[in-house]
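Example 3.2
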Amino acid sequence: MKKLLILLLCCSVLLVCCVGFSDCKKNPYPYRGEYKELYTVAVYSIPDAEGYMHHGEGAYNSDIYVWEQDDYGRILFSYCEDYGNEIFALVISQAYDKTNVYFYPDTNYVLTMIDSEYLYEGAKDDHLKNRTEDFYLKSKEKLKEQNDWNKPLDKTKCVSYPITDHKDLGKKIYSLKSHECNKILNETMNFSSSAGTPHRYNKVLQVDAEGKILHEIYGIYRLSSSENNGHSSHYVTLWVITDKEGNYDKENGVLVMYSDVSSKEFIYNAEDILAFKNKNNWKNVYCDE
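Structure, written as tokens:
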């Protein structure tokens, strides 16, 4: 009986430890669809991808539609995790095997925003195909050219990630504190009548080979009507690149992604994100290194 109690106590301690450390946590909404390899490519390619379609009380699987495959196994597909039914991506996977996926970083996706009055819930099987067909026809040739479509596979230009059912950036990554986020927001936006604490939430988006971190910071400013064109609120989203201790270059390390009097979703150009990363010496681990 005493041994049983000791065993139960040890199990309880282990459970508490796992709750207390970020590297023990699991994604609450793992992907259960049929395209696990393509899902993995999408969530590690698109910086702010979360990997699920959240609707407040739970989540649906991200949606994937395959458009075509080239002679060397590359796949071009549509991807959506936006429950608001507005933001969509085209993505190219270079290859995958039993354990890993391979793709060209920062050049293998393109985003679009399509106005919608409806939510994604209850969408028919062909919804993603129909929703993104014009986007695919307009964007496919440039995306193919950037990703060596129908050329022999060159893994030296690829990064690789283990096939997964959730986005996992690693263990014990530094997350900015609220006061640090407020400081970055205020130094960047410089609104004179703000209350000084606009920060609402922040999260880690990506991590590079040297431990540099791409963060997203979301803030709301309460401004005077004269300063904000008659509106009382101003919504801001920043992307910030720091080292693994949270230090950043004030001149080059902050990118204003969204700044407006309305709180809306936004899209961005992959080329702009690549340029931002290059200014901050972002390092990918390519498959030949």
